[in-house]
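Changelog-adjacent note: as of this version, every example in the card shows the full chain rather than a window. The one below runs 128 residues end to end.
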Amino acid sequence: MDAKIEQVQSAPAMQRSAYLFMYLLAAGCQRGSRSAAPPVSEPYRSDIEGLCDSLARSGADQLPAGERAAAIARWLGAHVQTPEAHDYLVRIQPLVGEPKAAALDAEARRVGLPGCALAAMWRVAAKP
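Full-length structure tokens:
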């Protein structure tokens, strides 16, 4: 009989422990949702930098507008080194105009670049 009394008296303490556990669990989940994106590798950052500068690096900036895309594509094919950058190019390939430029600008900022010349070119090319 005494064991039953002990269990009843310890129920509020157990309830407080359960609330504390739930609070800590919720706080941990919220902290995780606000955390920064995982760090970017230097080779991937370098690939995105090359992508953003590909207009000049490929020499496409010296070509007529209609020939630039092919020159940039050839240059990228020879210079993109990481699978992550290749996958990124595949993901944004179907986008056109402003959405594509915005996606590239966002990725450039994510890897620490101040801007992206290729995104600016895509914006200009998309305007009628």
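Structural remarks: Residues 42-126 form one domain.
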